[in-house]
Hints:
This protein is of the alpha/beta class. It has a single domain, classed as Dihydrofolate Reductase, subunit A (3-Layer(aba) Sandwich). Helix content is 20%, strand content 35%. It has four helices and ten strands; from the N terminus they run E-E-H-E-H-E-E-H-E-H-E-E-E-E. The strands form two sheets. The protein has an eight-stranded mixed beta sheet with strand order 5-4-3-6-1-7-10-9, with helices on both faces. It has a two-stranded antiparallel sheet with strand order 2-8. The two termini are 21 Å apart. It catalyses: (6S)-5,6,7,8-tetrahydrofolate + NADP(+) = 7,8-dihydrofolate + NADPH + H(+). Pfam families: DHFR_1. Pathway: Cofactor biosynthesis; tetrahydrofolate biosynthesis; 5,6,7,8-tetrahydrofolate from 7,8-dihydrofolate: step 1/1. It is an enzyme of class 1 (oxidoreductase).
Amino acid sequence: MKAIWAEDNQGWMGYQGKLPWHVPEDLRFFKEKTSGNIVIMGRKTWEGIGHPLPNRVNIILSRTEKEIPGCLTFSSIKEVLSYLQDKKEVEVYVIGGKEIFEQFFPYCHTIYRTIIHHSYPGDVQAPHIDNKQWERVEVKEEKSQTKPYPQITFETWQRKRSE
Length: 163
């Protein structure tokens, strides 16, 4: 299982139920990674997106929603993990929000973190990556072609093996 998110240089990843920015390079990276795979999100992230992400199995974890057209809904992590048992042929991406990241972090072995080097308004902080548990294995820098033309860092982290 993998986690994927973007944050600004203050660690914000959300504002009023949406992404605080529109950075095509980040959206392209997200699409490249998650297309053809399974994405797991919480109800609030689902509401912010507003529709199933195309070419993906959309799993919504919600205590209140029972049926969402074009998505699979589950009310517990246990149900999600049970569903995923026989889905070894595709990758599984946890895409948010904050509570969902916290709940699924123990099951993740890879993190894709995009840092957008600009300050945006925010009300949801990105997850903390503990350097004792995670090792950054890849870094790629890119300059956005969209105003305000922020620098973008794409990072890949791997969970450290227990010794």
